[in-house]
Amino acid sequence: MHNEAWFISRIALLGDRKAFSQLVEVYQSPIRRFFLNLTGGDEELSKDLSQDTFVKAWLSIGSFRAAAKFSTWLYRIAYNIFYDYYRAKKPTAEINVEIVSDRIADNTSDKDFSMDFVQALTVLKEDERTAMLLFYMEDQTIDKISKIMNCPVGTVKSHLHRGKEKLSGYLKSYKI
């Protein structure tokens, strides 16, 4: 099996669709999972955003520089696709723990309900959620997350710290 650099050079220099298809096979599931978690479990939207990511990657492959790993570059595209989508939605306010907690409490009469991780993620701001998902679900390093999100390492650490605090508070409020 050839390494990624071989595939990328074939794609960039020759427009080799077969080589690109093989890269898509490798990264399609992780990118969809990333979007699935970012979108709160919306499978159709996740598929659409994933497809947009790979179309953008195909069109932009000539701008890829081996200074970063291909996966970092691809996640950066995915992050930008999601950020553009989210910004276009123009959310009115961030969701906070109390609002989500009250909404869940109103919708269930059983205290023994199982906690849905996707629901728990709604207490986080978009940047916190993205950093948490990249770090804990996609096993990305803080340095890679910094490159993907285009922010300093310290900011990524702050997003992770705040995200852990919010999730911890949220989960503690549902102790049985």
Shape: globular
- Structural class by secondary-structure content: mainly alpha
Helix/strand order, N-terminal first: HHHHHHHHH
CATH topology of the largest domain: Rna Polymerase Sigma Factor, Chain: A
* Number of E strands: 0
Low confidence ranges: 92-101, 107-115
User: What percent of residues are in strands?
Assistant: under 5%
Helical run tally: 9
Kindly report the average pLDDT value. Answer: 80
Taking Cα atoms only, what radius of gyration do you get, to the nearest Å?
Answer: 18 Å
What proportion of the residues is helical, as a percent range? over 70%
Please tell me the total number of domains. 2
Strand count, sense and barrel status of the largest sheet are: none
Instruction: Please give the CATH class of the largest domain.
Output: Mainly Alpha
What is the second-level CATH architecture of the largest domain?
A: Orthogonal Bundle
CATH superfamily of the largest domain: RNA polymerase sigma factor, region 2, helix turn helix motif
